[in-house]
């Protein structure tokens, strides 16, 4: 047989290759230098010779997986020999991260445990199903009592979090797990390294929402084993723990939940306070919300039940479809939206802005007049001045900051400042009433100047002190009722608004009594004596003006009370228009219609004209007559309007 083979191969070699020099090589061998045969890579000759010419030499496969080679494929990897070669593969139950089957060496080993992760996925699915059962269990939710509903929701949410985290930590090999169903979607992620990369964040995404969390906040110093983060979106839980669980809810706020409820949790260290903000992105349920405001809230659990709260959560960006929030702690989160009819009504908004701007201008002019117009300065004008300043500041704050509701603390401070400034305006009005009353009463009393001095002394402590006391008491009793979700003003529930309306109504009534008695005193005086008529008339005029002012300012806020019920819309218009006109009214009555002030205006005007004409004559050196009288110019003031009321 060997002889026959030799002859056959010889003949084959001769027929294939006419090159006589190369010997016929056996299978799995090739010719080198045209003189020798050598086994192919992965084969070895049975004789052990590397180069040979004997054509019956046999090249056999080398088993690289057995000694002496014993290729190492890394953990959970095994070597697999094939003809002329070998490869590595993962042991059963493990898989390459890439999904491939073969790899070449231990350096390419990424074998992952797949069996437990399938188990993990199944467990997660079980959690989802269990949740679905809880959600549809009517007996759980139809207890009626809000407090119980909120406690049930809290315990379910907390159970969910711990179960999901436990499941994720059981299969640390599976870095990312996702499960989704109609009621909830879960994504978990396991972190095994110790966040050596600075500023590394993880992005988790479920259905419509996503979360970015800093690696350090997941690991929380736990370097012994893996840590996990879970992000869960609940699509229908918001129907149960809806906006009526908002802690700042009151009847006039129309608030609704405009996102899914999401939960974020880390483990095994369950510290919820974070060193960096966690950023949450919510897709709105209702697109294109009409109002421009949304609140990021979290589910705060307390002894007395749970509710949505804004502490530590704030909105950083919002557009038609998304709201993005930052939070300093982990919990369950959602986005609330609020809108009021005022915001719906662009006409009302325009009136407010135009009217208040006009008011601000008028108040500024009035304040400047009271301050600079020397001839009219007396106790009465200094009272007007303080009133104008308070109203100016109040309106300015109202215009610029009434809707700065993003930060709860800032909003509460704004509400407190507004409360103080408006109250101070009213206190100064009360002082005006008191001043008029004393003036009238003291027309006959000798120590008038004494009274006047007392008034001057008491003015500032009373005018700025009383509102401060009222605000301080309000702050001390219920600080959380400063600032509502849609505007920085006092809350309407628990009668808190009476901290403002109460003093206003009281001042209104007291002033009314003052004015009526002043008029009565003056009437009696007028009939009894005919001297001092001018003083009496003057005082009467002031009283009438002050009464008008009282109605303009006082009634406005009384109208504010009626902004509920069927006539709310009309009342809102009245309120806004009259409120906006307060500044204009003060300027009109005390400056434009006052003869003394008019005279002063004329004087200033003349001076300005003189300066102007002087400078003109200087610069142009023309023949403009220097005594051009600007008397006619005075007609632009309604000076001819007689001080008649
Ligand atoms: C080695 O030889 C055998 C038998 O002729 C053949 O089946 C096999 O394909 C050869 N191997 C290689 C790598 O060429
Ligand atoms: C084949 O030829 C090369 C160069 O011509 C030489 O370096 C080598 O040693 C030769 N191999 C053998 C087995 O003779
Ligand atoms: C619903 O919840 C109640 C109270 O936990 C429980 O007793 C009942 O078995 C649940 N029903 C279903 C259908 O799961
Ligand atoms: C939830 O998922 C499970 C398993 O994937 C499926 O059998 C069930 O029908 C799903 N439920 C809903 C409401 O989609
Ligand atoms: C984190 O890992 C790196 C590299 O593995 C190591 O040098 C460092 O000491 C570790 N840090 C901590 C806090 O364990
Ligand atoms: C909240 O849910 C309760 C009970 O399901 C419902 O009566 C109420 O109208 C809801 N409130 C809001 C603001 O959606
Ligand atoms: C929780 O984390 C915060 C911030 O990282 C840290 O200040 C606080 O001490 C931690 N609390 C506990 C109980 O570990
Ligand atoms: C929100 O959080 C992210 C991540 O911590 C941070 O980079 C960003 O500055 C925060 N934005 C604001 C407005 O605080
Ligand atoms: C709204 O903001 C989100 C997140 O920043 C962005 O993905 C989306 O494209 C924005 N949509 C519009 C209509 O601007």
TrEMBL record:
Its topology with respect to the membrane? Multi-pass membrane protein
From which domain of life does this come?
Eukaryota
| One Pfam family cited in the UniProt record for this chain | GPS
Cross-referenced InterPro entries: EGF, EGF-like_Ca-bd_dom, EGF-type_Asp/Asn_hydroxyl_site, EGF_Ca-bd_CS, GAIN_B, GAIN_dom_sf, GPCR_2-like_7TM, GPCR_2_EMR1-like_rcpt
* Subcellular location per the Swiss-Prot or TrEMBL entry: Cell membrane
GO MF term list = calcium ion binding; G protein-coupled receptor activity
The residues forming a coiled coil are: none
Ranges annotated as spanning the membrane: 351-373, 385-402, 414-437, 457-476, 496-522, 542-564, 570-593
Looking at the record, the residues that make up the G-protein coupled receptors family 2 profile domain are 348-594
Keyword list, A-Z: Calcium, Cell membrane, Disulfide bond, EGF-like domain, G-protein coupled receptor, Glycoprotein, Membrane, Receptor, Repeat, Signal, Transducer, Transmembrane, Transmembrane helix
| UniProt-listed PROSITE patterns | ASX_HYDROXYL, EGF_3, EGF_CA, G_PROTEIN_RECEP_F2_2, G_PROTEIN_RECEP_F2_4, GAIN_B
Question: Key word Glycoprotein present in the record?
Answer: yes
Q: Name one GO biological process term.
A: cell surface receptor signaling pathway
Pinpoint the GAIN-B domain residues: 182-343
Q: Name one GO cellular component term.
A: plasma membrane
Q: Which residues form the signal peptide?
A: 1-20
- Which intervals hold domain EGF-like? 61-100
- What family does the database annotate? Belongs to the G-protein coupled receptor 2 family. Adhesion G-protein coupled receptor (ADGR) subfamily.
Q: How does it assemble?
A: Forms a heterodimer, consisting of a large extracellular region (alpha subunit) non-covalently linked to a seven-transmembrane moiety (beta subunit).
What this protein is called in its record is: Adhesion G protein-coupled receptor E3
């Amino acid at each position: 047989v060997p002889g026959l083979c030799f002859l056959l191969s010889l003949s084959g070699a001769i027929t294939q290759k006419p090159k006589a020099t190369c010997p016929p090589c056996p299978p799995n061998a090739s010719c080198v230098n045209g003189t020798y045969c050598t086994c192919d890579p992965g084969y070895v000759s049975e004789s052990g010779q590397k180069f040979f010419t004997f054509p019956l030499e046999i090249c056999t496969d080398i088993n690289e997986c057995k000694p002496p080679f014993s290729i190492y494929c890394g953990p959970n990897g095994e070597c697999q020999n094939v003809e002329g070669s070998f490869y590595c593969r993962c042991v059963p139950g493990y898989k390459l991260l890439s999904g491939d089957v073969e790899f070449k060496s231990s350096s390419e080993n990424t074998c992952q445990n797949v069996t437990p992760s399938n188990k993990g996925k199944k467990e997660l699915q079980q959690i989802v199903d269990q949740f679905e059962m809880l959600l549809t269990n009517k007996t759980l939710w139809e207890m009626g009592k809000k407090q119980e509903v909120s406690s049930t929701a809290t315990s379910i949410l907390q159970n969910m979090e711990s179960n999901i985290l436990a499941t994720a930590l059981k299969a640390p090999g599976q870095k990312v797990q996702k499960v989704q169903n109609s009621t909830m979607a879960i994504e978990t992620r396991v972190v095994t390294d110790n966040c050596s990369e600075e500023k590394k964040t993880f992005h988790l995404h479920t259905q419509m929402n996503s979360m970015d969390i800093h690696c350090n906040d997941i690991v929380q110093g736990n370097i012994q084993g893996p840590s996990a983060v879970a992000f869960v979106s609940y699509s229908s839980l918001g129907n149960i723990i809806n906006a009526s669980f908002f802690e700042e809810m009151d009847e006039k706020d129309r608030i609704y939940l405009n996102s899914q409820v999401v939960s974020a949790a880390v483990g095994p260290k369950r510290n919820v306070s974070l060193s960096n903000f966690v950023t949450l992105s919510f897709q709105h349920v209702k697109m294109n919300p009409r109002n421009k405001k949304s609140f990021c809230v979290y589910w705060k659990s307390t002894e007395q039940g749970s509710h949505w709260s804004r502490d530590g959560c704030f909105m950083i960006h919002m557009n038609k479809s998304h709201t993005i929030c930052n939070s300093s702690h982990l919990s369950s989160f959602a986005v609330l939206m609020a809108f009021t009819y005022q915001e719906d009504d662009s006409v009302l908004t325009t009136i407010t802005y135009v009217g208040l701007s006009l008011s601000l201008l008028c108040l500024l002019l009035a304040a400047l007049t009271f301050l600079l117009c020397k001839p009219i300065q007396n106790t009465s004008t200094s009272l007007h001045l303080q009133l104008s300043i308070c109203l100016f500041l109040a309106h300015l704050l109202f215009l610029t900051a009434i809707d700065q509701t993003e930060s709860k603390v800032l909003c509460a401070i704004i509400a407190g400042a507004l409360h103080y400034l408006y109250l101070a305006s009213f206190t100064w009005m009360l002082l005006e009433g008191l001043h008029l009353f004393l003036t009238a009463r003291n027309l006959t009393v000798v120590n008038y100047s004494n009274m006047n001095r007392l008034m001057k002394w008491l003015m500032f402590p009373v005018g700025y002190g009383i509102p401060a006391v009222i605000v301080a008491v309000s702050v001390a009793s219920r600080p959380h009722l400063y600032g509502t979700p849609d505007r920085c003003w006092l809350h309407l529930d628990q009668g808190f608004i009476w901290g403002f309306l109460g003093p206003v109504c009281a001042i209104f009534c007291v002033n009314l009594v003052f004015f009526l008695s002043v008029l009565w005193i003056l009437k009696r005086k007028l009939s009894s004596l005919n001297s001092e008529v001018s003083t009496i008339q003057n005082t009467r005029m002031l009283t009438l003006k002050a009464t008008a002012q009282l109605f303009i300012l006082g009634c406005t806020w009384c109208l504010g009370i009626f902004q509920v019920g069927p006539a709310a819309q009309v009342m809102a218009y009245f309120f806004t228009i009259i409120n906006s006109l307060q500044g204009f009214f003060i300027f009109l009555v005390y400056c434009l219609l006052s003869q003394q002030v008019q005279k002063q205006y004329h004087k200033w005007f003349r001076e300005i004209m003189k300066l102007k004409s002087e400078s003109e004559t200087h610069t142009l050196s023309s023949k403009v007559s220097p005594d051009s009288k600007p008397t006619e110019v005075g007609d632009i003031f309604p000076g001819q309007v007689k001080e008649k009321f």
